Amino acid sequence: MTTRGGVKAxxxxxxxxxxxxxxxxxQDVYRFWFEEAGIPLAFPDTSNxxxxxxxxxxxxxxxxxxxxxxxxxATWDRFTSEFVPGGIIDEATDLEKDLAWMPATNDLNExxxxxxxxxxxxxxxxxxxxxxx
Length: 133
Known about the structure:
Blueprint lengths: L4 H13 L9 H10 L24 H20 L7 H4 L2 H7 L6 H16 L5 H5 L1
């Protein structure tokens, strides 16, 4: 099976609009947008071989995807304005940059708590005592 074209687009869209971890992805934004348009619709599951049966839903993706990219573009401009020449980050001293440094990811905060959250998704009746054993 190819990993380009429509298959790749459907795979990426599935990862964004129907992520298997409900704390990640944009599935709520997707669903709310369609509900506002009067169409109760969840993005089809693209993580298995049956996503081809949902092709009737994919034409609606173009409008949503364009709206998503327009919003992302405006937000990107706002977030990157600090990096332009003469911006806050460009003008900061080395000391100020060192003081403002933080890890790029939240991995340190995800450790045991993140493991516990994922574990509880699969075994919700387990007690904290049993998890810690």
